[in-house]
Amino acid sequence: MSGNDNKCMEERIEGILTSLMDSFSEGKYIDQANSYANVDEEQILHVLEDLRLIIFQGFFSNKRFKVFTTKNNTSMLLEDILYVLARQIARVLPYEKEIFCGMTDEELQERALDLTLQFLEKLPAIRAVIETDLEAFFDGDPAAYNKDEIIYSYPGLYAIFTNRVAHELYLLGIPIIPRMMTEHAHRETGIDIHPGATIGKYFFIDHGTGIVVGETTEIGEHVKIYQGVTLGALSTRQGQALRGRKRHPTLGNYVTVYSGASILGGASVIGDGAVIGSNAFITSSVEPGARVSIQQTTHKGLPSAMA
Length: 307
What we know:
Layout: H1 3-24, H2 41-55, H3 70-92, H4 97-100, H5 105-120, H6 123-140, H7 147-153, H8 155-171, H9 177-189, E1 192-193, E2 198-199, E3 204-206, E4 212-213, E5 218-219, E6 224-226, E7 230-232, E8 250-251, E9 256-257, E10 262-264, E11 269-270, E12 275-276, E13 281-282, E14 291-292
Parallel strand pairs: 1-4, 2-5, 3-6, 4-7, 5-8, 6-9, 7-10, 8-11, 9-12, 10-13, 12-14
């Protein structure tokens, strides 16, 4: 590159830099210079990985700590989670202005520490529920040759694990962090479950890609859903005016929803034992034990000359 070319390149880069600096000074929301106080995604994913080591104790190796007993390993993981998660929670609590407005940094840190301890106290119960999910996967999928295969490789179980963890944080009123966790699982698996969704025991996602479960969805026990299912809202045109309202459906116990089906609306209740067929579009309640399917298209064989 000649000297003139270098000068031209420098001038263009300088022009880009100047225009960017002008853009930064225009008062956009995305220009807030507060990154030191913002939640750290890398740290949140670090916590999620620590939690997976505890939830599936014995399946995933701890590469950071050199310990030889389960108790010592778990103790170090708990302390790591407590330190990291409490710091991140303290950073997001101010988003709940009505509750935490006016608190000092010390008060926020104390509250964050208490919330983190409350969450950690729920880990035995989370582990117990995930054990039922693992049972549901193994009992419901003849392609699974053993439970280890499910733990190591099934995206549905990873999405459910993440949701079980994030849901407890959501119930504690912690903003942002639960959604960051479930959106990480969404990116990894293609399964989008909002942390606000309430999901019963023995939940089985088969295949999973393209599943969407909205914030106010309620799912009973022993429910099985396949890829491409949407449990969504009828409309979000009213935007923030819909916040806090029941927008997503309720599924009873022992419901099966096959691939591509959409069940929409907060008033839609799918009764116990109902089966929703592939590609069905449901916007009203379905009685218990019902079998819902779209009308089959006519299938014609090929002409004999082409067979």
